[in-house]
Amino acid sequence: MTLREGLPLFRQQLTALLRKNLLLSWRNKRATFLHLFSSFFFILLIFSIEQSTKASKLASAQYKNITDPKAVASLPIPPCEDKFYAILPCFDFVWSGNQSRRVTNIVSAIMANNPGRPIPNNKVQSFGKPEEVDAWFMSHPLQVPGALHFVEKNATVISYGIQTNSSLEDKRGGVQDPTFSFLVPLQIAAEREIARSLIGDPKFSWGFGFKEFARPAIGGRVDESSGLSLMGPVFFLAFSMFGFVLQLGSLVTEKELKLREAMTTMGVYDSAYWLSWLLWEGLLTFVSSLFLVLFGMMFQFDFFLKNSFVVIFLLFLLFQFSMIGLAFALSSFISKSSSATTVGFLVFMISFITQTVTTLDIPYTKSQSIARRVVWSFFPPNTFSKGLNILFGATSTSSPGNSGISWSERVIRQTDDVISINEIYIWLVGTFFFWFALALYFDNIIPNASGVRKSIFYFLKPSYWTGKEGNKVKEGSICSCIGSVPRVEHVTPEDEDVLKEEILVKQQAMGGVVDPNIAVQIHGLAKTYPGTTKLGCCKRKKTAPFHAVKGLWMNIAKDQLFCLLGPNGAGKTTTISCLTGINPVTGGDAIIYGNSIRSSVGMSNIRKMIGVCPQFDILWDALCGEDHLHLFASIKGLPPASIKSIAEKLLADIRLTGAAKIRAGSYSGGMKRRLSVAIALIGDPKLVFLDEPTTGMDPITRRHVWDIIQESKKGRAIILTTHSMEEADILGDRIGIMAKGRLRCMGTSIRLKSRFGTGFITTVSFPENKNDGAGTSSEPLKRFFKEHLKVEPTEESKAFMTFVIPHDKEKLLTGFFAELQDRESEFGISDIQLGLATLEEVFLNIARRAELESATVEGTMVTLELESGISVEIPVGARFVGIPGTENAENPRGIMVEVYWQQDGSGSMCISGHSHEMQIPENAPVLYEPSSQVLGHGQRRVRGIVIDYESIN
Ligand SMILES: Nc1ncnc2c1ncn2[C@@H]1O[C@H](COP(=O)(O)OP(=O)(O)OP(=O)(O)O)[C@@H](O)[C@H]1O
């Protein structure tokens, strides 16, 4: 099948990615709805607040037309608590002139004759001079609304003065005018009592009336946009945060779940990836901005009605666009999608603070330097709030004209302004490009989910632009110092088949021989994860380099399934990651269908011909099985007309037709694995990597997937890793076992079993009614095995006895078993079974040897508890262990035991038991002898000697 390339592939990928974004938004309806329509709720909220404020204002006299003012005849001195802002305890008034008896009497009369409410003594404070009152005011602010100052000039003249706070005070829609609330009542009272005192008639009185002007409502009408202008900037910012956080979350999720990496492995163009997000978010932003302006107009806000529609719409649209750029840039620094909301909230808080500053016109005034304005404007919420300021100012009832800003007026700077709406547009577009460019840069230099990044000056290298040189990527964060990576020491393989393969590959590589039957040729592939030194604030964290793969040499033929086995941490996944370009190699190379994995051109060719089923399912929870296959098929470049039928066939093959339209998030583990296998097989790839494809599957499904894999072998090479020996046995044409980063053996299943298995396993069964047990009557049978084959039973019970017969006895087996069969009744045998060792045994043997190899270097010991009660320290993986101190005349070299090993749940080697004690043969070489027998705290503990018994047996 011809896959699409170049521009047609770019277009196809872009369409598929846009469709994916559409589906994700559609399936995440609640979030998308909020993104698009939250403006309605914000506008409704502002409208409601404004309406209630307006209603309370209209209830106050200030906002009413006074056509027929009422006269007030009596204005008593009010209690000080009536003052809007009074600090308690307070005084109704204070006075000075208390050295005059006459004045004191006048004040007493003012208090006693206050209409409707005689003033008690504790509500009045007296002083000698006005200066003393001023001094008292300084230390008692807001404790009194007014003061009277009396001077008795002579017997017929008493002068007085009044002090009140002259500012008008507003409280909950009411207005308190100090003149009429406090000044006039004090004046009336003072004049009344002075007159009575001078005239000498305590009943003297006169008529008084006070009437305010008939007037229209103060300010004409309530400013309808006051609520919007106050709260709008914050609300609009909060509204734009929905899109910001959702965008950030989507990008980080794709990175965190390695979905982005999976698409890259499938060959997605970075340009298509970014453009798809940009177009989709741009569309959502366009619609949400449009709705915001329409809702604003619907609620009849002057701001939306008087300013030009296009002017407002563009401000919201460009602001949200520049926030998309900022979200793209920040996404590179976040590795967990759960952090997106936190980052969004942080950006909102910062924006809120800077917006408040911008509302005060800082730094957009002539007194501020241009540099400060430029720096300030790089943060989009700042220019946005300046734009809102200008537009609110243009429609405020307090501004002359208040007719808003038309399209043609956008270029005009308003009086005292240093920036016009048009310049704000330019800033928003500029900052979008600035943040977007930074996003692309950060995307390349910040390590991806596999810890891989480009050099910080990658864009300065011509090879980046021409794509001709190596696929140069680095590992580790940009803040960590990576030490020099030590070379992997070349070790000649112990296994003759591995050595033969290495020599062959080297010869082919040197001679430039390209065998047409070879799909993958691996040349000394090595991978070392660099040790890093992270400089924290308090300490330095250092990790040593780790050699995960230490030089692999092998050929993988076309039409062959190569099965890579190995314990946890053997380096299987790392090998696959290197071959698929996810991780850069440290040494060596691999040629896949003639393309080097070290070249970026080679890698992009390789991506077109491989399929990968990663170890962990990389799927979108919200997309269904069918969506995944359509998306990856499009990314691969399959002709659009064929995608539907190919997806249907693959779904049928993996038995997911019924679940094709169900979201992958609700699939079982096995269903997800099957979908991952199907994704790997899309587009008929020439090389398929299957990393533990059947993990988590039930036995029936597993067999079915084996059938699929078996069928897919035709015409392609498959590299499969697994922990299931049965799977390897059934599927693997060739099996390689890796341990500790090295290939330990390779060959067909039979070859491995015969070379690395302990030999032939014979199980002899006894009839059920045999009542004298395995004791005495089994002795002749044991003797028969011992005499002919020199083997003892490894397991025995009433029902059966198992013997392991070494390979070197193979020639004797025909005669031996013929005689055994003839003497069945003599030995009381009911059945005899003979088989080769299992692959599991081979695997354990190889893993054990690898453990022993590193344990002897690193000194990793475990304790073996012998049945005799002795504890022996032995290296992990040691099979035959001699016990020091057991030497005597009968056993000149002492005794030894065979240690049985198995893997625990985490894949580590642990002791499962040991054999009977036996004599160490004279000719058995010592493989490893510990340097000291004395261990910690002076306590004597025995350290076992590792005997190479296998070499003589
Ligand atoms: N990014 C990394 N940095 C440092 N060490 C790593 C990194 N990735 C893997 N390793 C180490 O490399 C070794 C090989 O890992 P790898 O995943 O290839 O093993 P594996 O054979 O696939 O094991 P499993 O069967 O558990 O998947 C392990 O010891 C692992 O801890």
Describe the structure.
By secondary structure, the protein is α+β, with helices and mostly antiparallel strands. The protein has 5 domains: 9-44 and 231-445; 80-199, D-Maltodextrin-Binding Protein, domain 2 (3-Layer(aba) Sandwich), CATH 3.40.190; 496-533 and 557-752, 3-Layer(aba) Sandwich (Rossmann fold), CATH 3.40.50.300; 759-836, 2-Layer Sandwich (Alpha-Beta Plaits); 859-947, no CATH class. Helices cover 43% and strands 17% of the residues. It has 28 helices and 34 strands. The strands form 9 sheets. The protein has a 6-stranded mixed beta sheet, sandwiched between helices. Strands 28, 29, 30, 31, 32 and 34 form a 6-stranded antiparallel beta sheet that branches. α1 (6-27) packs antiparallel against α19 (625-636) and α2 runs antiparallel to α6 (226-256). The longest helix is centred in the first third of the chain and has 31 residues, at 29-59. The radius of gyration is 45 Å and the shape is elongated. It starts with 5 loop residues before the first helix and ends in a 6-residue tail after the last strand. 38% of the residues are buried. The mean pLDDT is 84. Adenosine-5'-triphosphate binds at residues 451, 529, 546, 548, 566, 568-574, 615.
